[in-house]
User: What shape does this take?
Amino acid sequence: MKLLVVGSVAFDAIETPFGKTDKILGGAATYIGLAASVMNVKSGIVSVVGGDFPQEDMDLLNNRGVNTEGIEIIKEGKTFFWSGRYHNDLNTRDTLVTEVNVLEHFDPKIPDSMQDAEVLLLGNLHPGVQLSVLEKMNHRPKLVILDTMNFWMDTAWEVLMEMVSKTDVITINDEEARQLSGEYSLVKAAKKIHAMGPEFVIIKKGEHGALLFHEGKVFAIPALPLEEVFDPTGAGDTFAGGFASYLVKKETFDFETMKSAIIVGSALASFTVEKFGTERLKEITPAEISERIAQFKDLTTFEVEV
Amino acid sequence: MKLLVVGSVAFDAIETPFGKTDKILGGAATYIGLAASVMNVKSGIVSVVGGDFPQEDMDLLNNRGVNTEGIEIIKEGKTFFWSGRYHNDLNTRDTLVTEVNVLEHFDPKIPDSMQDAEVLLLGNLHPGVQLSVLEKMNHRPKLVILDTMNFWMDTAWEVLMEMVSKTDVITINDEEARQLSGEYSLVKAAKKIHAMGPEFVIIKKGEHGALLFHEGKVFAIPALPLEEVFDPTGAGDTFAGGFASYLVKKETFDFETMKSAIIVGSALASFTVEKFGTERLKEITPAEISERIAQFKDLTTFEVEV
Assistant: This one.
């Protein structure tokens, strides 16, 4: 199996309480592709960049087995750029600059080499763009995973609803789940979102972990408490990438496998936040992943006799 | 073994998005005592109430095996009263009224019948009052559990530090842990708090669960996602009461037992929030507790093969 990723390939400039970066490689699809490569899963990215995008960054992806045929280069355009400053709690941030650039008129093109991808991960983009990807695929993928955000709920509700109705797994944060459903209780929110289409609802809670809802069942995983959260950028995308990659690897999409996939996603995300940008993600070894998964086991295992 | 509880016995008037109450029985020590009774653990409360405190409420505690000899009644005084309104997210609230009343000059008196308590749970009060309890005990209890809050960090830092230095287990929320330690990372915060005295640091995160830190080890438990969070009042106190009661029952204070105790506390707290005030807590059966603990197991158990 292989994973098709649609999302931004971008530049970020990040400021945290611990330091700041110049323009560095970022974007949801970048983190997802790198996470797939760490998991030894074949992936391909559909995205668009400008003439300013360095060959070096494209090589990085290719060398790690990420198919970049679907990354269109618009020579006269500029790559999407985001700049943000994290607050001291590292859980909130101010956006300083958003230059949408070539992403504004993003018209996704799926290369033939990726038409047979069984798992499609739609990174956070305009839901109309996400829908167009589904339409451009010759066969519907076996699993469609959707990432979205409150911005599209505010500005593109109807088309978002259509996209959600065609989704198998949706990943959103707790506030977005509440906004999407109009329910405060996350259990009730998940029920309403199930009714909109997705069989699986993943609610991301950042430093508080994640929840998975499916047919009245729920799984919860805390985030690994880390001594040093250096830079949260890309953590959510790494999570999604690790999650999807595990499913591709196991070729199974049931609740139990999704639970494991969430652990893998959380484990990978816990690396990403240790350094700026994609720096740490690129270095991860299989031994480190196993060790971190064991830490999650230790973190959450208990026995009670009452 | 038995549990000595020092804390408020009070009236609350509560408003949530789902309804409101008149003055009802509340106070940290009340929730803790009731949690102990649910766990079949002998407990006694040291507190103070006014002449307005109904005999009926005192009977309720006595009938459930909570020793009330240490609850002083100041006939001419009025019982502590708190009134608050929860926001829609049920995670934040506004205090509408705080009438400290007889609690203002609370001078705890430990009845002889409770001098031999092996576990002391000091509910959230002025740290000077908490310290005076320790001084009034003929023998230091085997385990001292401290609940405190940011208010005392702002107003009584030095005496709080003295109290903390004499504490075995401290329970605070995440923001308080950050304030107490001056560290944003909860791992670092726990380390600094260990150095202040407590061997065990419990960080309560409300709807996001709790963390337990001990000698470089960490345990994390999510809260049980509930369809209906009706009224969060007393959840933290129920948690502390269930936690302490389990330790009393097991007569063991090591990391593994504390992990189990946190599950029990979380399970009991998940009942408390289902109805107003102490209503649900009073009804819990042993079968329900076992069932809820099994739910926590289901909620958090996973297998991963990478």
Observations:
- Chain A touches chain B through 45 residues (CB under 8 Å).
- The first helix of chain A runs from residue 28 to 38.
